[in-house]
Amino acid sequence: MAATTGTITRLQAWCSQLVRDAVRTTIVLLKITIPISILTKLLKEAGVTDQLGMLLAPLMGLLGLPGSMGLVWATAMLTNLYTAMIVFASFAADANLTVAQVTVLGTLMLVAHGLPVEVSIARSAGPRMRAMAAVRIGGALLIGGCLHQIYRLGNFLQQPNRAIWNPPRQETAWLAWSVGEIKNIFWIFLIILLLLLVMRILHAIGVMDMLTRALEPGLTFLGIGREAAPVTIIGMMLGLSYGGGLIIQEARSGRLQNRDIFFSLALMGLSHSLVEDTLLMLVLGASLSGILVGRVCLSLLIVFIMVKLMKSCSEQTFERYLFRARHGTAGS
Fold it and tell me: Is residue 233 helix, strand or coil?
């Protein structure tokens, strides 16, 4: 009886901590999403979003997307995925997107989001910000373009999108719009809560460890040194904040070569938080064929080509354009 009571107490404490973490994360996001949502509404009212759509239409058109989705991706690049989901909700009802289009958009967002924060993290380990930003944005366009052509030529995923979270068509009146935004925020909280729960279960049953062991040989084959492989995998599984933090420590210790640091962070930038962020895009209706399988395979191919091309690059050129040399370390 005492053992049962203790188990119930621990379970209650675990659930309570889970909810507190979800609330804390949601509050942090609201500080960003609420101003962005209001700004988006004002831009729509003033007709600015239509103009932005026209400016972005050529680029989005190359990827098979309506111009309005360019604003969604721009929001993701400057802020985070959750904020971009709120902006997506403002346009999704009118865009009549297919599963293929949502998958391409989701992949763009997954590869290039939160750039001011994440590129700064990468810079602390040595790579130049402009180089990391170019890898992220250029990689997103390459991967998105490849997926678009595959889906178009094969006529795959052309059915109308049916998102798990499918916000209703937004009203134009401010009061009705505000009620709709509150509902969207509530759903965001539930999504965060679910993601935290899934992540903790995957850790508990050993799935994350299994994925880590499976990926390590492939990174060595790509040309990323064995010393950098473990932290690269952590970044790919859990996110750039975790992996980037670890690789910063390794870089400062001098145990990693500069090129290993650069290619590790490039791969982390293209494919990171493979579990959590992938689940987030599934909520919007994206297909795993693009947001997970296609993203990982094409990211590995891009980094493999980068490694091969940069073999002939001199250290002087490498340090001038791609990496800030740390004199006195093993990698300099």
Answer: helix
